[in-house]
Model the fold of this input.
Amino acid sequence: MDIIVCIKRVPEVAEIDLQVDQTGKSIKEEGLVFGVNDWDNYAVEEAVRIKEKHGGKVTAITVGSAESEEVIRRALALGADEAVMVTDPQADGSDAYAIAKVLAAAIKEIPYDIILTGVLADDDGCAQVGVTLAELLGIPHATLVTAIEIEEKQVKIKRELEGGMEEELVVATPALFTIQSGINEPRYVSIMGIRKVAKKEVATRDLGTLGLSPNQVGPAGSFTTVERIFPPPVGEGAQILEGSSDEVATKVMDVFQKGGVI
Amino acid sequence: MADFTSEQKDIKKAAREFAEGVFREVARELDEKEEFDDRIWKKAAELGFLGVFIEEKYGGAGYGYVEQCLIMEEFARVDLGIAHALDSVFFGSQIIQVIGTEEQKQEYLPGVCSGKTRMGMAITEPDAGSDVASITTTAVKEGNEYVITGNKMFITNATVADFLVVLCVTNPNASKKHERLSTIMVETNRPGYEANKLKGKLSLRCSNTGEVTLNNVRVPKKNLLGEEGKGFYNIMEFFNRSRIQVAAFGVGTAQGALDKSIAHVRQRQQFGQPLAAFQIIQAKIADMATLAEAARSLLYRAASKIDDGDVDPALISMAKWYCGEVAVKVADEAIQIHGGYGILQEYDVEHYWRDAKVIEIFEGTKEIEKILIARKILGRY
Done:
C-alpha cells in the first residue's frame, strides 16, 4: 500500500493576535511560529500507521517556500520514507486550484494506492486542495474521514456527517481521502527519527522540472484571488458582565428573567 | 558560534512539541501535589530526549551538549519542574561517560537513556554545600568492598533513583583536603540506604529531592568511579558538563516568562489601549527579550565549546550564573507586567518566578560561579 501524504507549513495561530500586513492581503509573519498544519499531522500519522500495518511506502509532498522543508523533514522523522518539496517563487499567490495542479504534476511520477491530505489548512481554511487534486487525477475521493480500513483493492472508510452521524463507505483504489482531526493520536517526533532524517535527501522540484508553465500557477493560474483580509467588525448587542463569579451569576439570572427565558 | 543546523532546529522543535503537548496540561497539578508522573519520564526516554550526548554504543544519540541544552531549554520554557525531573534521570551520566570504565559505562548508561533506570548525584551534605571538599561521608575499604557511612542533603531523585554517584572521603590522611575524596556508585537497594523526600519546596516542586542516610552501605570496589582521591576533581569535571544544562533551564524559564508576557501585553487593555501600546511596557519587553537572547548566546557558546572538546570552566560558570540571573529578572518582570493576575496560579506565570530562583542556587550558587570566573581572570588570592 503506497501512500502519498500532502502537507502544508502554516503559522501557529492559537492564542495569537494576528495582524494584517501592509498589502492588506496577508498577515504579518514576524514573530510567528510555523509548523505543520494540524489536519496534515493526523494525515501523516494515519499514513505511517497504514504502512506499519500493511507495508508499502509513504511519500510526503509539500508546495511552499524553502522553509517548508522543516515540515517535510518532520514527516520523514515521523516515518515517511520519501519526500518531495516543490518550491518556486512563481507559485506564490496560487489558490487551492493552482496548488492542486502543482501537486498533481508532482504526483504523476510517484506510484500510489491512496493519497491523504488534511481536511483543510489552519491558515486559509479553504478545504479545497484535496478534493480538487482528486478531480485533477481522476480518482475517487472522500472528505472528513475519521477511520480507514484497508481491504483488497478497496478501502473502507468512515466519514463525519452533520448532526453527530457518521457514514461508512467502500472506495475503490486509487483514491484520495481528506483526513479529519482526531482520526488518531499523532505520535511525537523522536530523536531517533531526526537522526534518520539527517541522512536522507529531500527531492526538490520547481515548475520547470514538473513541466508547468508560470501562467498555470500563481495568480494567473488561479480561479480566485485574495482582495483583502481583515478582522470582522465588532458586532453590537453584546453585554460583558463583570464582577465576582457570584455577582456575574446574579446578573445572568437577571438577564434571563427579563428576557423571559426563565 | 554559527546558527543552529537544520538537525538541531528539528531537535528543538521536537522538544517544543513534546513539552507543549504533554507538560502544559499537567504541570500545575504536579507542581501543586509535589508529585511527578513517571509516564512522562518513560515517554521522554522512548522518544530519545534523555542523555542525547551519550555515545550511541551506550544507548545515547551520540549528539552533544548543544543538543541536550536545546531540549532542556524547550522543556523549561513550559515547566522547569518537569524539565528538571527529566534532566535528573541522567544526572551524573555526564561524568560516567568521561571517567567511567568500559564496564561501568555499559552497566549504568544504557538504562538511563532507555528509561529503565534513574540516577543522581549525592554530593551536598547538611554542613557542606558550596564547601564541597569538607564533606564527611566516609567510605572505608574492607576486603573487596567499600563501607559507606554519612548523610547527604538536597539529593535529587533520593527516593526514586536506582543508583547514585556518592562523594565520599576515602583518603582522610591525604595532605591536601581536595585529595581525600572519591566518587563511588551506590545502588539504592543496598542495605543501609535510606532516603526521605523533602516537601514544601519553593521551586521544582514536582521533581524529587530528598535527604539520604548511608548506614554502613557496602558496595564492591568495582563501584569506584575514577581514581581514588580524585573525587573532588571528578565533581568539578561533572559540573563543567551539568551546569550547562542548568544554564539551559535559565534560558528556557526566561523565554517561557517572556512568551507569557508578550501574549498578555497584546491582549490586556488599560486606559483604552493594549498594554503593548505603552512605551514603558515596550521597554520592559525589549529588556526581557535582550536579556534572554544574551543568555542564550552565552549558553550555546559555552555548550558548543564543550562539544568541541574545549571545556572552559569559567565560560560555563558565566553561562550558569548569568542564565540563572536572567531567569530571575525576566520572571520577576513578567509578574510585574501581569499585575495582580501575575500572582494568581491560573495565569500560569507565577511558577516561572518561583522556579527561576533555584537556578541561582543549585549546582553551584551564583556566588561560587563568580569566584570561579574571577579565579580564571585574576588567579588565586
About this structure: Chain B has three domains: 6-114, 119-228, 233-378. Chain B touches chain A through 22 residues (CB under 8 Å). The radius of gyration of chain B is 21 Å.
